[in-house]
Amino acid sequence: MNFxxxxxxxxxxxxVAGLFAHACFQLSASMLTLLGSHAxxxxxxxxxxxxxSLSYGLGAFVATLGLLASLTYFFTSVVPxxxxxxxxxxxxxxxxxxxxxxLLTYYRRGKGTQLWLPRSxxxxxxxxxxxxxxxxESFSLGLTMVIAELPFLIAPLxxxxxxxxxxxxxxxxxxxxxxxVAACLPLLVITLLxxxxxxxxxxxxxxxxxxxxxxWTSGLTLILIGVYLFAINIWGKS
Amino acid sequence: xxxxHIIKRRxxxxxxxxxxxLHSSIVAACLAVRTLEGEAHxxxxxxxxxxxxxxxxxxxxxxxxxxxxxxxxxxxYHAEAGYMYEHHPLMx
Lengths: 238, 92
Prior knowledge:
The complex is a heterodimer.
Chain A: H1 12-24, H2 27-41, H3 46-78, H4 85-105, H5 119-131, H6 135-148, H7 150-164, H8 169-183, H9 185-195, H10 200-209, H11 211-235
Chain B: E1 5-7, E2 14-16, H1 19-32, H2 37-55, E3 60-62, H3 63-77, H4 79-87
Parallel strand pairs in B: 1-3
Antiparallel strand pairs in B: 1-2
């Protein structure tokens, strides 16, 4: 069995950069931190806290996998991105637009790591995190949070899907799985930290101290990806 | 005291101050930063006393006021737990 990942060529860096931007988005990580905080605060056993965190991560992984696979199918069969310039223009415009929106609105001003989402939704999600008792609930919470962040995640997912749609079937499948695994790495790291006995406050402090960095790097990365893709697919071919 | 009413930020409606509710939320904050259970209860009791003392001169306060005062006293006893208590609603 031979994989020809070299076929990705100039796009490999684009996927890695998109993946980085994806991993910088914080809704899933915030909710996992909150879930861990509630579970530990309620005096749940260590193994239960770990199970809840892992199933939450699995939910996020399944949602990412499903969304990326659907978008890749869309760009392969419905709107073949490699055959029409207009599809590339739409993808590039979307990525640049989302990059700008990330720079302007992703975090609320002030203390903490409050996100752009409506407060009513956050209160609902927080109460769900507090009431989460078993792995099925935490799985569905992980799944829901990825879907809730879709207005931002759509950009890196569209980049990865449009690039992977030009690959042969095997490489495309491996790429989709690899992307979903890598996108969920921050959740795995948080789960490992919670499992390793680290304090939730340490994780939250790190997130708060680095929120500007994450916001700026993810926003700028998306803008650069959009410009780069436009340059090699539209300017480069005209 | 204990005539004091808390104005809930979410509903805007007043409800009587419930020291047990405050106690359990402080215990949860302490446990979240891996404090031992006994220490968490002792700390919560001390903080609750400070809040009750503070409430003696008030007839109506907001839930945000209670959180601010409790967080300030909790930070004196346990800095990490105080941070968690204060930042819990600001996490997402």
